[in-house]
Amino acid sequence: MKFKRARIAAVTAALTAAVVASEIHEALAQPPSGIVEVQIVTGKVTEPMLNDHHDGEGWKLDSGDSIHVPPPAFAVLQESVKSGDTVHATTTTKTLRDGRKVNEVVTMQIGDRHLAILPPAPPKPPKPRKHPKPKKEKPMKAKGTIASFHENHHGDVDGFTLDDGTEVKFPPRVGELLQEGLDVGTRVTVNGHRHKTPEGDIHLHADSINTAKYAYAIDHPKKPKPPKRGTGHEDGMTRKQADDVLKELRGIRRLLEQRGE
Q: Going by C-beta distance under 8 Å and a sequence separation of 6 or more, which residues neighbour residue 193?
């Protein structure tokens, strides 16, 4: 009787150890929360990639790899990325809506230029009442030297003033990241659209900011459409998810600087 009890206890202990080992293995196989795996893709640009709407969405490389960016970012970056350029890209694996898995670019290095794809802001929840359609804002461009940065009432950097007095605005969510590559006295070229405030002030809302060394593409997401009847919510990143992405980008950038890339 004692032998049977001892054998049952031994079998139970072995099964418990196996379950614990399995759970530990599964936990180690998953990356910690808030951290994503990245890949380094290198090669020479051979040709751009187009989607079904014939919009540019990335580039093919002579290594056989391809790198993907959102079409709005491609429209800005296509002047900086040419065929024959050697690209060093930090990417993450992303599944598009059509089911394709792509190497989504986080940062790119072409020669001595470092390019960063900034994440879009999370869409605001739709409001029940209708709003009049805003007037289409005209394109606007400015060149000059940064004279000063300015902050909103929350203390977040949301723009800067050029030496000619031009007021440049961008989303506060990217202000901290932009300050890492921009400073007072930096010579910049800003492309965007002309915005008139209710007080009558004219601002340049930036879509891209270029310097001699860096090129920043600021992706402005389209306003979400009202949800169809019967749906519970619109898909999109929460503010916390957007903040996590920014932290990841800053961590990747520090890693690349430490490696001397």
A: 137, 138, 139, 140, 204, 205, 207
Q: What angle do CA 218, 221, 225 make, to 5 degrees?
A: 170
Please tell me the total number of residues recorded for the chain in this structure. 261
Enter the pTM of the model.
Answer: 0.36
* Confidence category of residue 126, pLDDT binned at 50, 70, 90: confident
Tell me how far apart the alpha carbons of residues 178 and 158 are, in angstroms, rounded to a whole number: 10
Residue 75 gets which letter from DSSP?
H
Residue 106 CB-density burial (10 A; 0-12 exposed, 13-18 middle, 19+ buried): buried
Pairing between β-strand 113-117 and β-strand 214-217 as defined by DSSP bridges: parallel
Gap between the Cα atoms of 91 and 80, Å rounded:
18
SS3 content of the chain, % helix, strand, coil (to 5): 25, 35, 40
Give the span between the Cα atoms of 124 and 242, in whole angstroms.
13
State whether the Cα torsion 78-81-84-88 is positive or negative. negative
CA pair distance 76, 59, nearest whole angstrom: 14
Residue with tokens 């032998």: 3
Tens-digit pLDDT profile for residues 182-212: 889 999 999 999 988 888 888 999 899 998 8
| pLDDT tens profile 204-214 | 998 999 988 88
- Lookup: tokens for 135: 């007037």
